[in-house]
Design goal:
Number of strands: 5
Radius of gyration: 16 Å
Structural class: alpha+beta
Strand content: 15-25%
Strand order of the largest sheet: 2-1-5
Helix content: 25-40%
Order of helices and strands: EHHHEEEE
Length: 104
């Protein structure tokens, strides 16, 4: 993803569960063992997401694993940004995001 605006931390236990669950899809992993690459991809997301969301040279959050997302809202037939700045969401936080209300 070229322009994420949210990085969500994945804790080690959840990532381990994802790898184990994905490994059970034997047909899929016989064709492509992506479950073996999942932890490295999520670690790389922390590095890439820090620069993409926080800006080049910004301090990385204390995450080992993360998934990147782009949150936008649908307004007047268009997708528009709905975050004033990027967001790093830790696994222990409860998100409290309220998109801007559309004029009616």
């Amino acid at each position: 993803m070229d322009d994420p605006n949210v990085m969500v931390e994945g804790d080690a236990a959840t990532v381990a569960d994802l790898v184990a669950a994905t490994a059970l899809h034997t047909g899929e992993v016989e064709r492509n063992p992506y479950h073996l690459h999942l932890p490295a991809w999520m670690q790389d997301n922390v590095r890439r997401g820090t620069e993409r969301i926080g800006g080049q040279g910004s301090a990385a959050p204390d995450f080992d694993f993360a998934t990147l997302y782009r949150i936008r809202s649908w307004e007047g037939g268009d997708l528009v940004p709905c975050l004033p700045q990027g967001l790093f969401l830790s696994a222990t936080e409860t998100p409290s995001f309220h998109p801007p209300s559309s004029p009616r």
